[in-house]
Fold this sequence. Notes:
This is Phosphoserine aminotransferase. The chain is α/β, with parallel strands linked by helices. It has two domains: 3-9 and 247-347, Alpha-Beta Complex (Aspartate Aminotransferase, domain 1); 14-246, 3-Layer(aba) Sandwich (Aspartate Aminotransferase, domain 2). 34% of the residues lie in helices and 16% in strands. The protein has helices at residues 14-23, 41-58, 72-84, 97-106, 230-245, 248-269, 294-305, 331-350; strands spanning 3-4, 64-69, 89-94, 111-117, 139-142, 144-145, 150-151, 162-165, 182-186, 197-202, 274-275, 286-290, 309-310, 321-324. Helix 4 links the parallel strand 3 and strand 4. Residues 8, 72-74, 98, 142, 146, 165, 167-168, 186 line the site of 4'-deoxy-4'-aminopyridoxal-5'-phosphate.
Amino acid sequence: MIYNFSAGPGVLPEPVLREVQAEFLSYKQGVSIVEMSHRSDTFATIVEQLEARLRRLMQIPDDYAVLFLQGGATLQFSMVPMNLRESGRFAYLDSGIWSKKAIADAKHYGDVVVAGSSAAVKYRDLPAWPETISDVDYLHVTLNNTIEGTRYTKLPDTGVPIVADVSSNILAEAIDVKRYGLLYAGAQKNIGPAGLTLVIIRRDLIVDRDLPSYLAYSKHVDTLLNTPSTFSLYVAERVLAWVEGEGGVEAMERRNVEKSGLFYDALDASPLFHAVVSGKQRSLTNIPFTTGDAETDRAFQRFAEARGLIELGGHRSVGGLRASLYNAMPLEGVKRLIDVMHEFEQEGQDVSYKNV
Length: 356
Ligand code: PMP
């Protein structure tokens, strides 16, 4: 049995993968889903179902549009400032490496006000929400910091639209959509294969601007502007059906609280490993941990890999170890990881960690 702790593309529900495999050669019209026109009625039904499921799961109000785009969350680092630009001043919370990249891209389109930053403490902590913020077009936040393993749980009342990157926590925990002006997420963690990006935007923020067509939100509302990542959309629709069948976002959050709680407890009790993030800011989905020694971390990664636990390396920019516990990671996977950590701790008492 293999358990995949990758931060993304991440683990997907096995029943969905089996269904996709079974349908791959012939989907309804006798051709493969990857050979089918995105303008066919069959495909249009998939997209409609996908949107309907997402709206039900996240309780997305009618005055929000749902857009299915490409270019990853990274393209949203540019599309957000291009499309929401009124005064040309944008506020950002600098809470991690992804928000830093978002800030760098936004600077191409206006003046960025960094409303809070935890860069000085290597993003181990979250910057506080600004007390007041005005004279900016929006305030951008990365709600869950995939690399650093921190997450925001409370939102302030601001007078400006909040834009949130929810790439690594969408559908993993409840997100109150109506508190936001815009949410965006790459699909490749909790939604489906890479190649699909979701944007959920309050309709009054969609303004016709003089932008190249693909880059304008207004050109994507209630239509597929061009050929989308059809396979990703199809799998995403099946994953969302699975989420609904399992009890929706509430059930996912309950499970993720249980899984991450078990893992944090094990880390807090371990004589060898410890969590990088402490306290209330701990992410439910991405958990960086370490022994404090880079070589021992690598030795554990190899030790775990040999036992079927893969992708436990930290992000290449920070090193260490990281377990991503997305919706499709079963509780058994977390229990197995904890057992293997105990085994490693035991063996380490007899032999050098470096030789395992
Ligand atoms: N934002 C966050 C929070 C992420 O976790 C990632 C990727 N893991 C990105 C942005 C970049 O996403 P993409 O690779 O889809 O451009």
